[in-house]
Amino acid sequence: MAVLLNRIRSRLKTLVTCHSKIRSSLYKGLLSCLIALGLPLSNTIAQEEFLAVSSSFDHSAREWQMFYYDFSADIEQRATMYLKWPFKNDWTEWSIDIGDEIFNIKQRYRMAALQFELISAERTVSIRQKWLGDNNEWLISFDKTSLKWQTDTPNNLELWYMEDGEEYLDMWTSYPGDSRDWIIEDRFDALPKEVKLAAVFITIYLTTPKY
What we know:
alpha+beta
């Protein structure tokens, strides 16, 4: 049976905020322990939990709002993803503003198969089709690691997931047939936020009209 559909049936959207608050309390406790032990924080636990993404405008896919829970500040925050050159109608370059950081996304080869790179100050993340011409499976590569971002069922681009052991990242449309609003279930604490943003980006890119 489909992996992501089973997960969705077992959860309620209204529990997302409550769950994030519980995780925030756990985060603070773990943070105190790590500081006391003198261990590094950035590569140990996620500092953000992504919750949802929505188009800023009903009739344009040029700008998006990403909602996430910031455990360090204990509040819900918002990031913005947008076309870098909107007036040129150029869909090959994007930017993401999240907190004090700006990430850039660029199509690597404009005339070849779809392949993008997300670039931050810390790493470059590659986003490419696993199979030429197949939008159901994508390889997201970073720090000598590759993970598969894939649809739950073939040719249904409204349900996506990535998993590694017990950790996972899921994404699905809030309303069937409407790609303007998405719900994200982020239970992948060990994953850098750049990788999560790469997964969200390619999903949005594939499922929305270019205007």
